[in-house]
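User: Quick sanity check before I run a bigger batch. Here is a single chain. Can you write out its predicted 3D structure?
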Amino acid sequence: MTVPTGRRERKKAATRRKIADTALRLFLERGYDAVGIRDVAAEADVAVTTLFSHFAAKEALVFEQDEDFEERLTRAVTDRAPDEPVVPALRREIHALVRHCTADGAAPVWRMIDGSPALRKYEESMRLRHAESVAAALVADPGMPQSATACRTLARFVIDAFSLARESADPQAAVDEVFAMIEAAWEAARPSRQA
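Assistant: Done. Predicted structure follows.
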């Protein structure tokens, strides 16, 4: 995540963090559906308009790091070394995200998400957006020999690898298992070189 440099940016980031932390605490204490936006704003001591200036919807409060995760996945493609293959770079980032999302204390949040149709729907739309961002980064890479369709497929598989791993008893092993298949499929999609 980009660290805010100016005082104003730091204050905005602190307010955003305070709102998200307050919302998550309230959701876990009382239940997601039992807490309204006004409850969160009052508890965080901010105006409802301030809350909405940081979060577009109630569901976004649960997925506070959404933009950071999307940026990290895209940067795994765009910021890798020129000679580094793309699949290992994405595997490394998915491993890091899975570690973060399966750390101690994450289970109650995922149970809340899994128990809420609104949060599951939001998560699905978020995953599709992340996949499109990764696909766009892949397609824009001038050294990418695979087709745009292959790039979009890889992006979807990478995002699905995160979801499958998160639900596994051994998340890190699941990432490796899924990425072995992704690597094979990616290589199969490479255009054959003719002599």
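The radius of gyration is 19 Å.

User: Great, the batch can go ahead then.
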